[in-house]
Each structure stands twice: as C-alpha cells, then as structure tokens.
Design goal:
Order of helices and strands: EEEHEEHEHHHEHEHEEHEHEEHEHH
GO molecular function, one term: ATP binding
Number of strands: 14
Distance between the termini: 31 Å
Strand order of the largest sheet: 6-7-8-3-9-10
Pfam families: ABC_tran
Protein name: ABC transporter ATP-binding protein
Largest sheet: 6 strands, mixed
CATH class of the largest domain: Alpha Beta
Low-confidence stretches: 307-316
InterPro entries: AAA+_ATPase (IPR003593), ABC_transporter-like_ATP-bd (IPR003439), ABC_transporter-like_CS (IPR017871), ABC_transporter_ATP-binding (IPR050763), P-loop_NTPase (IPR027417)
Bound molecules: adenosine-5'-triphosphate
Structural class: alpha/beta
CATH topology of the largest domain: Rossmann fold
CATH superfamily of the largest domain: P-loop containing nucleotide triphosphate hydrolases
Shape: globular
Strand content: 25-35%
Keywords: ATP-binding, Cell membrane, Membrane, Nucleotide-binding, Transport
CATH architecture of the largest domain: 3-Layer(aba) Sandwich
Length: 316
C-alpha cells in the first residue's frame, strides 16, 4: 500500500473572474520510505495538493489516501499519520515551547512522550529555548518550532511545505540532517521547495507540477540523465549579445547557457568572442536539476509522466 496516494485529484477555486483550475487530474503514489519532491513554479498547485492531503481543503473531484485512509471520510486516522510543516507561521502565543509541544501531542492523543519531545528540542536546536514563550522566539526559531510541532506525534509521513524559505544556513543543515535521519529510520517524506539543489540532493523521486498538472514524474537520477545537452557556464562583467541574453540564466556575474551539442557550444563561444565578452572560470557541465526544471517547464525535456506516457502508448 502506498504511503500517499492521489487519485485523479482536481481542485477548482471560485474567483471573481470565474473558476480557477488549481489542480487538474493529479494522480501520484508515494511509496513507504520514499523521500519525494514536489516541485513547480509559483501557483503550480503544490500547496493546494498538500492542503487536500492534510484535510485543510477539499478536492473538487478525485481522492487522496494516507496509508489507505481517505483524507475526507477517515479524516482523523489519515491526519494522525501525517506530520505537516506548513509554510506559514501560526502559533498560540500564550504557551512556552515545551508546553506547546505537549498540547500538540495531546491533540493527537499521544501522552508521556517527554523523551521524544526532548529529542526533538535537542535535534532542532531548541533545547535552550524550551521555557521561552512562543512570542519571544525569532522567526527562525519559530520555524524550528513548526517542525517540532509537526513531528511531535511521530507521524510515519512527514510533509514539508517549503520548510527552508527564509531560513539561515545553520537551520537548513540542522533540519536536513534530522529529516534525512528520520527518512533512514523509515519515515516517508514529501517535500516542496523552490531550492532545486536541496531537492536534487535529498529526493529519490520527483514530480513537477505546472498549472495544476504533473508534467514530469521520475527518479531524480533519471530526470538528470534524460536532460539533454550541457551547460556552458562562466563569469563575466560584460553585457551579453541579445540573442544569447534571451537564452541565458544570469545570477549576478554568473552566466549559464544551455547548449544542445558541441556545435552549439562553439556557436555560443564564437558569438561571445565577436561581442568582446570577457569570460572567467569557464566550464562545461552536465545539466543540474535547475536546468532540468527549466527544460521541463518549457516543454523541452524528454521526461513524460507515466500516465501521459501510457495514454500515448495506448493510442499507438
Ligand atoms: N483560496 C484560494 N482561492 C482562490 N484561488 C486560490 C486559492 N488558493 C490558491 N489559489 C490559486 O490556486 C493556484 C495554485 O496555488 P498554490 O498555492 O497551490 O500554488 P503553489 O504551487 O503552492 O505556489 P507557491 O510556490 O507560490 O507556493 C494559484 O493560481 C493560486 O492563486
């Protein structure tokens, strides 16, 4: 039985401009013990899908199951199996850190788990703030607390919705170290993030959503292998010729240019030389997950989600 199963999940929101299709027939199984990444640009539907899983939003059609429990008809059982770390910081300001965790445990019917609460506080760098009132915590500390709250009932499935947005390097490392350990111990992890290097490093399998549909679904290693061509990367202080500027991914001085083949690379280099662009730290590398993501979103990547592939093969 999959840890998480989305079965033809669709969701339309009523808006003043008419219905907005946030999710369109999303089908996806996440197996026990997977570290699964759900990626997509802003507005792709990631949070909506997670909200449906957590029972915070209702699917317009289709259904979601957590270890076989329907999130609508068996809400309490499904919810107990999930530890959801939400994007937004919402807290009860009247309690201290340890009290909040005890209350959250009680909410899930879990008692006498002081040892686990201590372990959470220790592993998330909150031990010396255990007596602090929630109001006194910094933003980063509050985020650690969100993680602790989500894990307090030792859920088999951990759902992290952009857990590292606005988080410092130290907390990122603490968090990933801890979540990777829980995954090794058998917990299933579902992660959404805009940090594709994190997804590449952590996730065994990845689904990419675009406008509410799955547009890629595969093992991370396969997505990387199927990415076409290579990337010409260099640093420069000069402006790029317009034709290359349109193709390039530019981050400050770092320029990354996708290239299909060696002829393409030679063409790029010739155009740069003609334009008098001075290149530093030039390298040619394999595409990384960010390149794959951009290829998938532009429709250029070879990967097809299984359902779409089966439909095409069925027509043949
Ligand atoms: N309550 C709502 N009412 C109307 N539209 C909504 C509502 N919630 C989400 N949407 C819309 O549904 C679409 C999907 O939003 P969602 O928050 O799921 O995207 P996301 O992939 O999580 O994006 P981000 O990366 O920005 O967090 C967007 O177009 C969004 O504007």
């Amino acid at each position: 039985m999959p840890a998480v199963s989305f079965q033809a999940v669709s969701k339309a929101f009523a808006t003043p401009k008419g219905p907005l299709q946030a999710l369109d027939q999303v089908s996806l199984d996440i197996e026990e013990g997977e570290f699964f990444g759900l990626l997509g640009p802003n507005g792709a539907g990631k949070t909506t899908l997670i909200s449906i899983l957590a029972g915070l939003a209702r699917a317009s059609s289709g259904r979601a199951l957590v270890q076989g429990c329907d999130v609508q008809t068996e809400f309490a059982a499904a919810r107990r199996k999930l530890g959801v770390v939400p994007q937004e910081l919402v807290f009860d300001p009247f309690f201290n850190v340890r009290e909040s965790l005890r209350i959250q445990s009680g909410y899930f019917g879990v008692r006498n788990n002081g040892a686990w609460i201590d372990e959470l506080l220790e592993n998330l760098g909150l031990a010396d703030r255990a007596g602090a009132n929630m109001r006194q915590l910094s933003g980063g500390m509050k985020r650690r607390m969100l993680v602790a709250q989500a894990l307090v009932h030792k859920p088999p499935i951990i759902v992290l919705d952009e857990p590292t947005a606005g988080v410092d390097v130290e907390l990122r490392q603490t968090l990933w170290h801890f979540v990777a350990r829980l995954n090794r111990e058998g917990h299933t992890v579902l992660l959404t993030t805009h940090y594709l290097d994190e997804a590449e490093a952590l996730c065994g399998r990845i689904a990419m959503l675009k406008s509410g549909r799955i547009v890629a679904l595969d093992r991370t290693s396969v997505l990387l292998q199927e990415a076409s061509g290579s990337v010409l990367q260099f640093k420069t202080d000069s402006a790029l010729p317009p034709a290359l500027a349109r193709l390039a991914r530019v981050t400050g001085r770092v320029v990354q240019l996708p290239a299909h083949d060696t002829v393409d690379i030679e063409g790029h280099l010739a155009a740069l030389r003609t334009a008098g662009v001075e290149l530093h730290d030039l390298e040619i590398r394999r595409p990384d997950l960010e390149d794959v993501f951009l290829q998938v979103m532009s429709g250029a990547h070879a990967s097809r989600p299984a359902a779409a592939a089966a439909a095409v093969e069925g027509q043949a």
